[in-house]
Amino acid sequence: MTDLIDTHCHLDYLEQAPLAQLLVDCQQLGVAKILTVGVGPDNLEQVLNISNLYPSVFGSLGVHPHHAVEYNDDVEAMIIAGCKSDKIIAIGECGLDYHYNHSPPQIQRKVFEQQLDLAIKVDLPVIIHTREADRDTIDIMKNFSQLLAKKGVFHCYSAGQELANFALDSGFYLGFTGIITFAKADNVRQIVSMTPLDQILIETDAPFLAPKPFRGRKNSPLYLPYIATELAKIINQDEEIVRQQLWKNGHSLFDL
Fold first, then answer.
1. Neighbours of 100 (CB within 10 A)
2. Is 254 a domain residue?
3. Closest of 71, 14, 68 to residue 37, by C-alpha
4. Exposure winner among 91, 129, 163, 233, fewest CB in 10 A?
5. Distance (Å, rounded) from C-alpha 126 to C-alpha 150?
6. 171: domain CATH number?
7. Which strands, in side-by-side order, build the sheet including 88-97?
């Protein structure tokens, strides 16, 4: 079957060792390319190093809303410098997360806007994290969506219908994880069913959110095919056709 791209995971968080062997195993299962994602100052260098070391791995650099209080001029300079590598293909993950509020909401909003500005400056798509912040996310993105030439993805989508409609109408992708396999995720499956296939990406978000039948374990890019299979079932399409479109979508957004 057509190969897959894990469009969002955190390879530097994985405990499987060695990483080189994991990537070989991924290739054998058809997970041909992986995007490992930056979340804050402490892992940006690791993301850059891993991306540059392995041909099948690409990276994004950004500051997660949990770490928004750590964003400063030095961190922004580090991100800009890292974007000179052709293996860095996105800005993020960045956005808003009001579930834990590890950073105050007003700082999250400011830092989100700064990173959207940065994505425009370096001409890369943006990876957006949003949780329990639909209205503020829409309000901010209204000012940026037309300026982001390469758009981006609302990753690990589990928000509401209004935000989904806004994202899709603005030309963004929605990224879906193993959540779509969870018994109590009918709301997410409903969003999947109304999303055009050419605006869908799949991702593991490993080591988090392992799909069935691996719930309770550390997640891995190795489990991405399970998400592809479930996606095909939800939208009632042939899995090979779905995989072909997912492959095109990942290459189109991230210019792979």
1. 10
2. no
3. 14
4. 233
5. 8
6. 3.20.20.140
7. 4-9, 31-37, 57-61, 88-97, 126-131, 152-154, 173-176, 200-202
Regarding pTM above 0.85, the answer is yes
50, 48, 35, 38: which is closest to 4 by C-alpha?
35
Question: 160 lies in a domain?
Answer: yes
Joined together, the tokens standing for residue 3 give: 């190969």
In a domain? residue 70: yes
Amino acid identity for residue 223 in this structure = Y
Q: How far apart are CA 128 and CA 203, in angstroms?
A: 13
pLDDT along the chain (256 residues), means of 10: 98 87 97 98 97 98 98 98 98 97 97 98 98 98 96 97 98 98 97 98 98 95 98 98 98 97
Spatial contact of 113 and 84, defined as CB atoms under 8 Å apart = no
In a domain, 253, yes or no: no
Per-residue burial over 159-193, b = 16 or more CB atoms within 10 Å of its CB, e = otherwise: beeebbebbbebebbbbbbbbbbbeebeebbebbe
pLDDT at 17: 67
134: containing domain: 4-248
